[in-house]
Q: What sequence folds into this?
């Protein structure tokens, strides 16, 4: 009779579960809220004036334990600079097939040029597609991160997280409206970081 | 036999066949949904509303899949085994009455594949035939895991058939008391003997106490019902008695080497068997199609299909128990299976048989010394 008792106990557990909540998130239809520091795929950020943050220093490549980042820097063209500094990232490639998403490159970056997004849909049918070049990594001037499958109904644009909002030097190549302004502004996109104590905000 | 009668027989056979296919499609989906519910999952929900067409999609996929034949297979038996699984499964249901006999233009049409006067024996025979398919599939695949599964099937079928047979015997004996001694093995007859209320059986008790209790064999033969249910789960090779196809130990068991439509036939046979076994349990213990038809309240055609509805409702209660047990119990170890069969169920069934024999005998003939 003891065994029968145990069986009934077990049946009661499953019977109760029938009316309990479901843990499934119906993924392509609904997305799960990701933690803020989720390690998704990388993005190369721009300053709000449109300049690239990357200065081609290759510290990310040096920090990478999986050796999956390849960077080559080059001097900025004098009349049309790409980044505020002397140099910019001329070639920037990440092999996502090797990347372990440790974010040590993000730690290493002195200008916060590389950060991680919440994008996680990176499957490819082709090994060559697993190597992300600057075309795929660099956000465009509106702040949108290029996606491998733009317009894919199964991807959720709100997965994009903000990079940071450091507005520092402006260069002659940047938008004219930012000339001479030194203030905080969130980078284009979704962001709720507040300014540093000694900074003002500006909405341009 | 005139041609109308012939057409009616054909119609009944086709109706039974279609009914079984439709309920199989629904049952596979239902099982996946119920088990998913019990595991806090969602289950299939892509094909059709609530995923109800999932089985159709799976069936179509299997239909177009390649059918791989292993090099070492005994080809004749290997090809025959899926049919040996399906045919007894369908035959099993033919003796189950799924509605009150209806009379149209003076012709009595029993809603039943065929009313065999040895229906109960036929059930035992067909449910034992199913094991041949498993054993032959396991042996003819020419592979070790199917062979192990097939060998397990033999031992399991033998142990649980005995218990099931003994449980049925006590039911048949009990139902003989309804006519004062004349027993029957016809399922239609067994159903008719469960019509009415317990007041007919126990006239000494007040009507308000027993007048509303249906005269199902379940109540006097509850122990037999439990034994039958356990044996039925074992006979259909369902969890927790699915040692025949224990995935964690022997890959897929007897159907490891089967693919495509050949595998689908084993799958179909399993689910048809579940439905048939549940329908038989409902027929033997839950009064079959008996139930209120509300002839004075409802239009005639609704009253006419209500018996079929009652049978299906009772069947699905038992099918739900099948699924519930599957979602709850872990698989038995092989020696536990044998212990349960030979040392628990068979003695219990025998003891119950002797006990009910005494009770029936005393009720009919009085005490031997009186």
A:
């Amino acid at each position: 009779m003891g065994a029968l008792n145990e069986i009934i106990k077990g049946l009661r557990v499953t019977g109760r579960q029938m009316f309990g909540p479901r843990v499934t998130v119906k993924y392509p239809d609904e997305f799960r809220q990701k933690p803020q520091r989720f390690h998704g795929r990388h993005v190369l950020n721009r300053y709000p004036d449109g300049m690239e943050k990357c200065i081609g220093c290759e510290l990310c490549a040096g920090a990478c334990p999986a050796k999956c980042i390849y960077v080559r820097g080059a001097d900025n063209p004098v009349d049309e600079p790409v980044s505020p500094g002397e140099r910019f990232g001329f070639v920037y490639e990440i092999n996502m097939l090797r990347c372990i998403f440790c974010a040590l490159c993000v730690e290493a970056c002195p200008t916060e040029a590389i950060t991680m997004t919440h994008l996680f849909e990176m499957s490819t049918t082709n090994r060559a597609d697993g190597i992300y070049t600057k075309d795929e990594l660099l956000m465009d001037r509106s702040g949108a991160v290029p996606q491998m499958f733009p317009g894919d109904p199964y991807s959720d644009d709100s997965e994009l997280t903000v990079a940071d909002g450091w507005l520092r030097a402006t260069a002659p190549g940047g938008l004219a409206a930012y000339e001479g302004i030194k203030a905080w502004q969130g980078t284009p996109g979704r962001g709720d970081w507040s300014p540093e104590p000694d900074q003002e905000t500006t909405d341009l | 036999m005139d041609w109308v009668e012939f057409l009616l027989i054909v119609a009944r056979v086709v109706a039974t066949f279609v009914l079984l296919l439709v309920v199989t499609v629904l049952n596979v989906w239902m099982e996946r949904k119920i088990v998913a519910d019990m595991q806090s999952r969602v289950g299939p929900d892509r094909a059709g509303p609530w995923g109800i067409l999932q089985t159709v999609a799976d069936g179509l996929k299997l239909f177009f899949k390649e059918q791989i034949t292993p090099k070492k297979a005994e080809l004749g038996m290997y090809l025959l085994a899926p049919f040996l699984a399906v045919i007894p499964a369908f035959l099993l249901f033919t003796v189950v009455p799924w509605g009150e006999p209806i009379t149209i233009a003076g012709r009595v049409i029993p809603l039943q594949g065929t009313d065999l006067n040895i229906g109960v024996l036929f059930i035992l025979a067909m449910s034992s035939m199913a094991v041949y398919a498993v054993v032959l599939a396991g042996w003819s695949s020419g592979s070790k895991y199917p062979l192990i599964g097939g060998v397990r099937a033999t031992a399991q079928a033998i142990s649980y058939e005995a218990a099931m047979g003994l449980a049925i015997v006590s039911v048949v004996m009990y139902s003989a008391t309804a006519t004062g001694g004349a027993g029957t093995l016809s399922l239609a007859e067994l159903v008719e003997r469960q019509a009415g209320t317990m007041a007919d059986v126990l006239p000494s008790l007040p009507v308000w106490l027993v007048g509303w209790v249906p005269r199902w064999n379940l109540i006097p033969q509850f122990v037999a019902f439990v034994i039958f249910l356990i044996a039925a789960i074992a006979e259909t090779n369902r969890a927790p008695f699915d040692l025949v196809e224990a995935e964690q130990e022997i890959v897929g068991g007897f159907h490891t080497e089967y693919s495509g439509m050949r595998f689908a036939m084993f799958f179909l046979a399993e689910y048809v068997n579940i439905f048939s076994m549940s329908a038989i349990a409902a027929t033997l213990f839950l009064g079959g199609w008996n139930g209120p038809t509300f002839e004075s309240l409802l239009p005639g055609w609704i009253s006419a299909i209500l018996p079929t509805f009652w049978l299906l409702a009772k069947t699905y209660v038992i099918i739900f128990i099948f699924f519930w047990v599957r979602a709850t119990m872990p698989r038995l170890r092989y020696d536990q299976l044998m212990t349960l069969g030979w040392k628990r169920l068979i003695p219990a069934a025998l003891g119950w048989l002797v006990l009910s024999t005494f009770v029936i005998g005393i009720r009919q003939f009085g005490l031997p010394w009186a």
